[in-house]
Amino acid sequence: MDAGVHFRTKSDTEVVLYAFIHWGAQCFEKFNGMFALAIWDSLDKVLILARDRFGKKPLFYTLLNGEITFASELTALLEDAAIKVNVSLSISGLNHYLAIGYILAPLTIYREIHKLESATYLSFQDDNIKKHRYWDYRVYFDHQTKQTEDDVAQQLDALLEQAVKYRLISDVPVGAFLSGGLDSSGVTAYAKHHIPYELHTFCVGFAEASYNEADDARVTADYLCTIHHELVPELRWNKETIRKTIDCYDEPFSDTSLLPMVLVSKFASQFVKVVLSGDGADEIFCGYVTYQADLLKRRLQFIPKSVQRLAATVLRKTAHETMKKTSLGFKLKQFSKGLAQSPQYAHYVWRELHDENERIALIGAENREEIKASHPFLTFLKYYEEASEMEQMNQHLYVDAKTWLTDDILVKVDRATMAFGLEARAPFLDANVTEYAASIPPTMKIGMQGGKLILKEVLSKYLPASTIDKKKSGFNAPVNAWLDNSEENEFRFFNKYVWNQKWCALKNFNEI
Fold it and tell me: DSSP assignment of 252-292, as one string?
């Protein structure tokens, strides 16, 4: 090659090594994929830790007595006796968990252990830690494309196809998760263009009708002619299996879809060792109902605040939640929380499980000041301030990529797949795709009728109309039915259930 390097192996690790020798820390911005790595620079006597753009891969570290210790699993650090006896519960981490069901970087559930943030490298030298963000997702929103919708669709199509093709490079056959939704179906369709062997696809179905998307996945699998595998778990009252799925996560985490994610990962690992997933599409193409709620709130902004507050109170009291998946009553209650608030707080609070007063009651009034000081919205607000010059919907997309995507969605997939030696690859988070997608105006992505408009246009030539027109439903699990709960919504209930099943024993902390 031009740099005069002659590779002796086919290992990507050797590529990383020579890239660092040639470019130094600037090499990280040239990588396109997932990684968490450590490099010892013996010349400058500096340790470098780095994590990929969106944090697909985890990296934990702790600094005790002038020594840094790091690992790709939080629990691995606790195997060091010197660390285990010195860690303590992080009230801030617990505060995040009870608020949103996951813990935002750099916090963890242990006060002394930290997550390295996405798109960041850390240098450790002479007992000092310095962090550097090597890639700034925000700048790609600055220049919105002036291309026509047809030109955008054509370019996006080419980028997605290349991203999938790139992630099919493997020494072993590659399969795909196929939920029946637009994102995983699109990835599967592109994969079929380039795989020279029969493609295996995997999905989870549920006995509870409102949660079940297996029929949709089967339609897509038949249309694309894949070898389709369907798993329908019956976990009602099977608390031992549920406990084992929770054990795959190395700190408190209560996304209800962790249950089917773990089960389908175990299932798929019996057939393949690499799978493609559709993760990331919702966060770059406005796929969630939360973005529609943001649009609706903007349309209601002319209504006096006093009227909005009254409407919010009425909605909270009258909206009736049911056992169906994300029922209308649930959506109305979540929307009401932010109705009279700022657009930024309204976007955050849509996913809030327990409000600040509830968290003070659950954790203990003696921790009131730390709970207030570590409100997770403050982390969201930091990212909103970075994006303050951007169009409002783009602000939401940027913040979600820095929070929800990194610390919930990608955590869920990584821990579930790696528990069974399965590697999950996310083509939608290809650097070229995400950087271009950021330049696409929100009006091409979302309207009141739904999101992912431009993506639907691109994929319409590859997928059946029923898949393109399918309403976004999310990958939730019927935990209330499985655990015989009828007292509160599944998200709040499961949040406390996970803590009480595994984590309340941490430093003899109480159940909540």
Answer: ----TTHHHHHHHHHHHTTT-SEEE--TTHHHHHT-SHHHH
